[in-house]
Amino acid sequence: MNRTVTTGLNVPWGMVRLPGGDVLVTSRDTAAITRINLSSGAETALGTVSQSVSNVSSGGEAGLLGIAASPDFASDRLLFVYHSTGSDNRVARLRYEESAPAGSQLSGYTAVLTGIPHAVHHNGGGLAFGPDAMLYASTGDASQSSRSQDRNDLGGKILRMTPSGQPASGNPFSGSVVWTLGHRNVQGMAWDAQGRMWASEFGDHQADELNLIEKGRNYGWPDVEGTGGGSGLTDPVATWGTDVDSPSGIAIAGGSVWMAALRGARLWRVPLAGTKLVADPASFLQGSHGRLRSVLALDDHTLLVGTSNTDGRSQPGSGDDRLLELKVT
Q1: Per-residue confidence at 45, pLDDT binned at 50, 70, 90?
Q2: What's the pLDDT tens digit per position in 188-215?
Q3: What does R_g of the chain's alpha carbons equal in angstroms?
Q4: Strand pairing of 135-138 and 178-180?
Q5: What CA–CA distance (Å, rounded) separates 326 from 2?
Q6: Closest CA to 217 of 233, 193, 240
Q7: 235-246: per-residue pLDDT in tens?
Q8: Residues pairing with 292 in the sheet
Q9: CA 104, CA 89: separation in Å to the nearest integer?
Q10: pTM reported for the whole predicted model
């Protein structure tokens, strides 16, 4: 059974579930954060990140992207966002003051990591706390592919940091927030029940990817796209043609990775046994709701999926953009 939770959203991008069950959604182009009650669809405006800091910038693929809630959110009320400025992408911290009037519930803006490369395209933007309570951010190569192999550049990487933006203990490169390198543009990140990390990646013209993310690994871009990287490079677990995918958010439920596809306008189910693909990926919702951006597992059999038809890449339909609740097995 599928149902529409809410409609009329403006370029929804990142989603995170709060301890009480409601979901926060970011708007890429307006820098707004909205709280949504999944039962009623009722919306509450927290405010915009631009109310807290003046240099939020949108345009192209840039703007307010990922969002994560502190592992101690119930007590510290801290939110983390990944957003663009006129000169960089950055990770910032805000406090959620739920008792304040709607629209004015964000305070205490603090940038915790700056200097992530920014461009019209390939800004990454994924943000999530892992099972280790460290904060992970996915970045793009900002349309300059040489960044991805440069350990001193934050572009084309997955980063791992403390909540204050410092390199986390156990990172592979001393004094660095870099966790993995050789990425083109990663947006989706998720962990399975065994604590393994997975990420989706936009390819160029040949292959989009689903990767098993492991400490210090090099995923090949720009030297290789898709499989066949050879010694020292890590191949993806699954690949797709770029015409049927353009992967953004991912979630794990029912023993599978679920991947939202933008250009492909569908939801991919990738069945896994441990780290191995056990059957061909299957597509759902193909063409029925347009471009799909975000996917969040509410439980092991329920997904929340966000469309992305108001992002300038397609013609919005009536009610776009929307959040959909899907029952999966």
Answers
A1: very high
A2: 999 999 999 999 999 999 999 999 999 9
A3: 18
A4: unpaired
A5: 5
A6: 233
A7: 999 999 999 999
A8: 307
A9: 24
A10: 0.97
